[in-house]
Amino acid sequence: MSERVGFVGLGIMGAGMAANLLRAGFDVVVHNRTAARAEPLVAKGAQAAASPRELAERCDVVFTCVSDTPDVEQVLFGPDGLAEGLRAGSLVVDASTVSPQATREWAERLAGSDVAFLDAPVSGGSEGAAKGTLSIMVGGEAATVERARPFLDAMGATITHVGPVGAGQTCKLVNQILVVVSMLGVAEALVFAKAGGLDLDKTIAAVKGGAAGSWMLANRGPQVIADDWRPGFTIDLQQKDLRLVLEAADELGVPAITTATISHLYRTLQREGLGGEGNHALVKAIEHLAGIQARQD
């Protein structure tokens, strides 16, 4: 008999991930702070729990996917949190993007109650969450990863065990450095192309299959030139991740020069009230500097 799985956090990423667990045939219990977000999943066959504690009492394996380190802390150890309902032998898998150091501390606390823990942050945007094609980077013990693998396989196309607890989060921060630096390149390139009088659709088609190609160019470039700022991942959440990168870089004593610059560019957009737009709106900071909009005519 398969283990019952719970999912806490039904935002841009979590809703799609939980839906894919349902599609794969798992018995799924869901909870979200805003209860209305659980309703579409309940309509598809999920069961709703009134609190993280209640969800934990009903599940063997629990996934969490919430916004920031304090949010995971609250879901785990706050009033009516998961820790109050988890049984010995349960497994918690955190798919949020949060502090590696806090992740290690949570795992140690839960181990005292014989609860296993994995950090399994994801990449691939809302599209990947909906399609079940996420890249998932997992930290924890190998046997625990194998226990979670059937659930991870339902949500992701690439599952990589990268090391002990905390390594998943560190790997995700590597991912976020690459994402934003890539998007800055896309932004500068599209503004340059527009200034040079190029057709932007043809420009993207010409370069995306070569050495300059990237996921951000292929997926977010067309959104930029179509004036489409719907978020696969919002600026506000991206900024939270960049804060985590810069904090970790400070702890490790390594430079993160371009990442810091991009964080400042995003800050200017947040001050303009654009924090809810997709992270590809980074281009607007470059457009402001250039006085040129990278939109297809």
From TrEMBL:
Q: Which Pfam families match?
A: NAD_binding_11 (PF14833), NAD_binding_2 (PF03446)
Q: List each copy of the 3-hydroxyisobutyrate dehydrogenase-like NAD-binding domain by range.
A: 166-285
Which keywords, in A-to-Z order, does the entry hold? Answer: NAD, Oxidoreductase
6-phosphogluconate dehydrogenase NADP-binding domain residues are 4-163
**Catalytic activity, EC:** 1.1.1.31
Q: Which GO terms describe its molecular function?
A: 3-hydroxyisobutyrate dehydrogenase activity; NAD binding; NADP binding
Q: Where is the active site?
A: K172
Which GO terms fall under biological process for this protein?
Answer: organic acid catabolic process
Q: Which domain of life is it from?
A: Bacteria
Top enzyme class: oxidoreductase
Concerning InterPro entries, the annotation shows: 3-OH-isobutyrate_DH-rel_CS, 6-PGluconate_DH-like_C_sf, 6PGD_dom2, 6PGDH_NADP-bd, HIBADH-like_NADP-bd, HIBADH-related, NAD(P)-bd_dom_sf
PANTHER family in UniProt: 3-HYDROXYISOBUTYRATE DEHYDROGENASE-LIKE 1, MITOCHONDRIAL-RELATED
* UniProt record similarity statement: Belongs to the HIBADH-related family.
Q: What is this protein called?
A: 3-hydroxyisobutyrate dehydrogenase
Taxonomic classification: Bacteria, Bacillati, Actinomycetota, Actinomycetes, Propionibacteriales
